[in-house]
Write a structure and sequence with these properties.
There is one protein chain. The chain has 13 helices and 25 strands. It is α+β, with helices and mostly antiparallel strands. Among the domains are: 215 residues, FAD/NAD(P)-binding domain; 88 residues, Glutaredoxin (3-Layer(aba) Sandwich). The strands form five sheets. Strands 1, 2, 8, 9, 10, 11, 17 and 18 form an eight-stranded mixed β-sheet that branches. It has an eight-stranded mixed β-sheet with strand order 6-5-13-14-15-12-16-19.
């Protein structure tokens, strides 16, 4: 049976492009097909966190992406009078990945950086203007038909991943339903080009004003965004009129400081696909789950999907793992996604109160909590992974493994770049080699600069060794030999 590629990715936005590059890094042949002829030129997603930058680092795109991004220091929820209800300090501590914890982006620039890497990849190809028409599974793979500029085209792949967004054709063709988490609010989104940054807030804000809940956030590449909740009776045509927008921005005193780039009406949803897999077809990103934007985790969740799925497909297609490993994709990712959605819903339901009496009660309760010294906000990190390819009961299993950085003059050395791809077995002392594992002792010359940080991490977890998965989550801790045996058994589900 002949195949055009190992994995066919439908949709080449940030999630699909990331997945294509990660799969190529696994040594798989990949075709990413997107119905659009080019990158959508205006901003959409606004935020990525440190872990996502670490994924982009793995595929060679981090430096280009960070060049057009801006680190965010704080995220505050304010009353209409400007009192702080919640405050998330995004710069209080160094992130586990070494990159800034929270980063405001320009999505077209981010996508261009990813496609730049696809263009030079020996394993990944991009097909634009290709619109999916049908899927036809067969014993060893999946066949797909596309409407393309050169006429109808057919491709055969061993696996297919739908990264084709909220209106996923892949999801519809597979007849996969959605679990509606009951959040549906229309908002006007206004993107602007910044002329005078000194006149704009230098932090991200949610204004919990019952008269008009409002979001004000920094963006990458000299841009700023406002989001205004639409009120009952307002229409999309009405709120996008130039005079209406000018009225909304008047209280911000930014006339002459910004230039309107675009306005659009979005409905903020909370949805999760009932299943993320049907045979050899998978869903990722917005095709699998949608979240309100208040926690800034929509794009992040999709890239985490890509990082989780890519190494598992690689291990299965290379014959290193049982196909049952692929069942851990949803079991690991869905609880993490639902946690992020729950945080966004908490934030959204805090913001989107339009009844003045209910808003006053909210303000009084939350201000009292702050005055009493109760925790308010904090960080935006998610829970560890669970219920998957992990050493159950092992300290730190499911946590993101840190990436130490070392600077020498103008040069920066990062652990991931030095240790390389694939699973790592990092041990205090040199030991035997294990097939399929990159075994690294703390006295290895490659780890010399990182050894103090790695030894401290092992000390905190009372471990002689740690096995780190290819997506940089901890499989387990303990001693080297049992970890290697447990890893082999986990891959083969023995």
């Amino acid at each position: 049976m002949s195949f055009d590629c190992d994995v066919l990715v439908v949709g080449a936005g940030p999630v699909g492009a990331s997945l294509a590059l990660l799969l190529a890094r696994e040594g798989l042949s990949v075709i990413a097909a997107d119905k659009a002829g080019d990158i959508y030129p205006l901003p959409r997603a606004a935020h990525i966190d440190h872990e996502i930058v670490r994924v982009f680092q793995a595929v060679g795109a981090a430096d280009d992406i960070m060049a057009t991004s801006k680190a965010a220091a704080r995220y505050d929820f304010l009353t209409a009078a400007g009192e702080v209800l919640l405050s998330f300090d995004l710069a209080a501590a160094r992130s586990p990945s070494g990159w800034p914890a929270s980063n405001m982006i320009h999505q077209p620039s981010l996508e261009a950086a990813l496609r730049k890497q696809i263009a030079v990849s020996a394993k990944a190809q991009l097909r634009t203007g290709w619109e999916l028409l049908s899927l036809d599974p067969f014993d060893d793979g999946i066949a797909a038909r596309f409407a393309a500029p050169e006429g109808e085209q057919a491709l055969r792949a061993r696996y297919l991943v739908g990264c084709d967004g909220a209106r996923s054709v892949v999801r519809d063709l597979c007849q996969i339903g959605l679990d509606d988490l009951m959040f549906d609010e229309p908002w006007l989104v206004i993107d602007t080009l910044v002329v005078d940054p000194a006149r704009l807030p230098d932090l991200n804000l949610q204004i919990c004003d019952p008269a008009r809940p409002t979001t004000c956030v920094q963006m990458g590449a000299g841009r700023h965004r406002w989001e205004f909740m639409m009120l009952p009776g307002e229409t999309a045509d009405q709120v996008m009129e130039e005079a209406f927008i000018a009225g909304l921005l008047k209280s911000w005193n930014v006339e002459g400081a910004v230039i309107l780039e675009r306005s659009a009406v979005y409905r903020f949803h909370a949805l999760v696909a009932e299943t993320w897999r049907k045979g050899r077809v998978f869903l990722a990103g917005d095709a699998a789950h949608q979240t309100p934007p208040f926690a800034g985790q929509g794009l992040c969740a999709g890239v985490r999907d890509a990082a989780n799925l890519a190494w598992k497909l690689g291990a299965v297609l290379r014959g290193e793992a049982s196909p049952a490993l692929l069942d851990t994709y949803q079991s690991e990712r869905e609880p993490h996604v639902r946690s992020a959605i729950a945080l966004a819903l908490m934030m959204g339901r805090t913001v989107c109160i339009t009844d003045p009496a209910a808003a006053a009660a909210r303000d009084a309760a939350m201000l009292a909590q702050r005055k009493a010294g109760e925790p308010s906000g904090g960080g935006l990190g998610g829970p560890p992974l669970a219920n998957g390819c992990l050493l159950e009961g092992s300290p730190a299993a499911g946590e993101l493994f840190p990436q130490p950085w070392v600077s020498v003059g103008d040069q920066v050395s990062r652990l991931d770049d030095v240790a390389g791809p694939g699973p790592w077995l990092i041990a205090r002392d040199a030991g035997p080699k294990f097939a399929g594992l990159n075994v690294l002792a703390l006295d290895d010359s490659r780890l010399k600069s990182f050894a103090p940080d790695l030894a401290a991490w092992l000390d905190r977890h009372d471990a002689a060794a740690v096995l780190v998965r290819p997506d940089r989550y901890v499989f387990g801790t303990g001693t080297a030999d049992p970890l290697a045996v447990a890893w082999a058994r986990a891959l083969l589900f023995r």
